[in-house]
Design a protein that fits this description.
The chain has one helix and ten strands. The chain is mainly β.
């Protein structure tokens, strides 16, 4: 498996900037949050908070971070690193590409923090 179409660019809601999608992966379905940051760039991150099993797509986007609605943990959309407690572990970041209006995400190999920063600067 490699990158799969998960939505259209216009499917990411303008009011919340987040769309939850379920992406087939090698070990089953992977919940992914497709997020538009305040600069208009799209990101794909795990939809599950690393602090508790809570959907991040229900949280708020601020600049290049997403906040968990339950306890306020924040994660950098480019690296997955937590930027606010109580979370201390990063969330997976997935390679996202846009082809025309199609958003493609590859969940087979989550990016490490350094690779995520590089992919963000090269692909968006």
């Amino acid at each position: 498996m490699s990158a799969q179409r998960v939505c259209s660019v216009t499917d990411v809601p303008a009011d919340t900037n987040v769309l939850r999608v379920e992406v087939p992966g090698p070990a089953g379905t992977v919940p992914v949050a497709v997020v538009r940051d305040e600069h208009g760039d799209l990101h794909a991150v795990s939809d599950i908070c690393s602090h508790q099993d809570v959907s991040l797509s229900e949280g708020e986007v601020d600049d290049c971070t997403i906040e968990c609605w339950l306890h306020g943990s924040r994660f950098d959309l480019r690296t997955g690193r937590p930027t606010a407690l109580p979370a201390t572990r990063p969330i997976p970041v997935y390679r996202l590409t846009v082809e025309g209006e199609d958003v493609l995400v590859d969940v087979t190999a989550p990016l490490g923090a350094d690779a995520a920063e590089s992919a963000t600067s090269k692909e968006r």
